[in-house]
Amino acid sequence: MNLAFSGPDGIIILTLYAVVMLLIGYLAGRGQKGLHKSLSGYYLAGKNLGIIALFFTLYATQYSGNTIVGYAPTAYRDGFSWLQSIPFMTIIIAMYLMFAPRLYVISKRQNFVTPTDWITYRFQSKAVTLLAIFLMLWGLGNYLLEQLVAIGHAVAGMTGGTIPYEWAVIAFVFVMLTYEWLGGMKAVAFTDVMQGLVLMVGVVVLLAGALYLVECDFTDVTRYIAEREPAKAAAPDLETSVNWMSMLILVGFGAAIYPHAVQRIYSAESERTLKRSFARMAWMPPVTTGLVFLVGIIGIMLFPGLDEQGSEQLVGMMANQVASINLVFYWVMVLFFGAIVAAIISTADSVLLSFSSMLSNDVYGKYINPHASEERKVRFGKIGGIIAVAILLWIAWNPPATLYEIFVLKFELLVQVAPAFFLGLYWTRLSAKPVFWGMLVGAVFSGFMTLTGNDTVLGVHGGVIGLFINVLICVVGSYMTSVSTQSRRQMDEKLSMEI
Amino acid sequence: MDGKVKEPIRKKWIWVVLALILLGNVPWYWPKGIIEPIIFGFPSWAFVSVVFALLLCGFLSWLCLNQWNLVEEVEEEERKGEGELR
């Protein structure tokens, strides 16, 4: 996209953001000698995040710059049925409510660092642990890849190609790696406060500008759509409704058990902090995806007749128009585009930190060198994370000719770990073998559906069908496995709420 | 803290209400193609969907604050204790 503000102004703002992020990272790590010697110190900010940092890190992790750049065009193409983006981001909190309260208590008692720690503790099965590690690392890796690609597009778009795509990615990845190296989770959470704030303000201003362009009359926009493109305003057919419901399930379960999301439960300073952060998070979808939805809908009137490729540029075109209103809007839009880049980074950094923590604690700490010092484990994860980013960048720039689709798999795989949490926390009968087979069959099935181009069947996502099969195997299999009274009693103790 | 322990998953009514809100949010019960009347700029079905979406936010936010209480008292007591020691 070519923006009116392409060039030097964009570069100045981006540099400013980068400097602020580095500064925050430096301050977060300064004077904390123990930080790099402790897994929970480095990866979970010492399990001591207060309400402001916890809330913003939840927010900035869940809402990426992609949410804005990608969701507005979807609203443009799908019309009012994209209202589903509000409830599917909200339902994540309901899923948290199903498992976070108890997992928080057990994680404090057992000093968990990664989601895998829970799985090892609950099932004591090498097979389940390894499969879960594999699925989570795969999902996280692909998620990270997506964010890395997005950084390049956003920066190149903002500076009108003055900063080429590759250089943009390398520069910002360098910034991200540096502050993460310096301050770990603490740096990630503190930079999230800045990144989350600018994103919130940016979305509000973009909508204000868009409303200004249509003379503040949203009813006019809807009437326009109803006349010209009635399908986008009309009540959807049953298949769209089924797809809507399926999306609630897929995103709800998938996003709540993202490894970095689970680790934010572990990082909370107290139960009080955690529930207050969630209570605020529950209100964020209407003011984030909700506003982005409105921007997309207004776009239908401002830029009619865009094809799929053209509509992907919607936010850029909109920002361009808004920037030309007057000088104030101009500078706010420059800040806003910087905010999009910052928001992508704030999601990428959390994913990378989670990825590193699993390398440290799960791969290295459980299997390669269990007796190593925590300092050594942390270092392994940090270096492993950098290598992973290098590999992902290489893949992003040299996409393999075939099987590229395997890099798209994300939610479908992650969501298969859900039963190990949701059932495992409450159902003492649930045993390791059925969990393993459920996870495996669910992942293979939904992966196969996506790879063969059948994302949905009658509106239901492959990942959701896979999850259903997975749960079925878990439940039936566990009933068929005999469990002694003694081992059930032991399990009861393990899952107890004593702190 | 006896008697005050609250865990959302153990309360069936929470999940019944949640299911009802979701069923209200998904526009499966509207005749296909309907737009009018337009309410506050939204097609009527979309307006109702937004109302349920906001209801969902409010309900979940309220649940977090009022129906979740496992170890808060113990933790806050401990903290107070630590504070006094300092």
UniProtKB/TrEMBL annotation, chain A:
<feature type="transmembrane region" description="Helical">
    <location>
        <begin position="12"/>
        <end position="29"/>
    </location>
</feature>
<feature type="transmembrane region" description="Helical">
    <location>
        <begin position="41"/>
        <end position="60"/>
    </location>
</feature>
<feature type="transmembrane region" description="Helical">
    <location>
        <begin position="80"/>
        <end position="99"/>
    </location>
</feature>
<feature type="transmembrane region" description="Helical">
    <location>
        <begin position="328"/>
        <end position="359"/>
    </location>
</feature>
<keyword id="KW-0406">Ion transport</keyword>
<keyword id="KW-0812">Transmembrane</keyword>
<keyword id="KW-0813">Transport</keyword>
<feature type="transmembrane region" description="Helical">
    <location>
        <begin position="127"/>
        <end position="145"/>
    </location>
</feature>
<dbReference type="GO" id="GO:0005886">
    <property type="term" value="C:plasma membrane"/>
</dbReference>
<feature type="transmembrane region" description="Helical">
    <location>
        <begin position="434"/>
        <end position="452"/>
    </location>
</feature>
<comment type="similarity">
    <text>Belongs to the sodium:solute symporter (SSF) (TC 2.A.21) family.</text>
</comment>
<dbReference type="InterPro" id="IPR050277">
    <property type="entry name" value="Sodium:Solute_Symporter"/>
</dbReference>
<dbReference type="InterPro" id="IPR001734">
    <property type="entry name" value="Na/solute_symporter"/>
</dbReference>
<keyword id="KW-0769">Symport</keyword>
<dbReference type="Pfam" id="PF00474">
    <property type="entry name" value="SSF"/>
</dbReference>
<keyword id="KW-1133">Transmembrane helix</keyword>
<feature type="transmembrane region" description="Helical">
    <location>
        <begin position="244"/>
        <end position="262"/>
    </location>
</feature>
<dbReference type="GO" id="GO:0006814">
    <property type="term" value="P:sodium ion transport"/>
</dbReference>
<dbReference type="GO" id="GO:0015293">
    <property type="term" value="F:symporter activity"/>
</dbReference>
<feature type="transmembrane region" description="Helical">
    <location>
        <begin position="194"/>
        <end position="214"/>
    </location>
</feature>
<keyword id="KW-0739">Sodium transport</keyword>
<feature type="transmembrane region" description="Helical">
    <location>
        <begin position="283"/>
        <end position="303"/>
    </location>
</feature>
Automatic annotation (TrEMBL), chain B:
<keyword id="KW-0472">Membrane</keyword>
<protein>
    <recommendedName>
        <fullName>DUF3311 domain-containing protein</fullName>
    </recommendedName>
</protein>
<keyword id="KW-0812">Transmembrane</keyword>
<feature type="transmembrane region" description="Helical">
    <location>
        <begin position="42"/>
        <end position="65"/>
    </location>
</feature>
<keyword id="KW-1133">Transmembrane helix</keyword>
<feature type="transmembrane region" description="Helical">
    <location>
        <begin position="12"/>
        <end position="30"/>
    </location>
</feature>
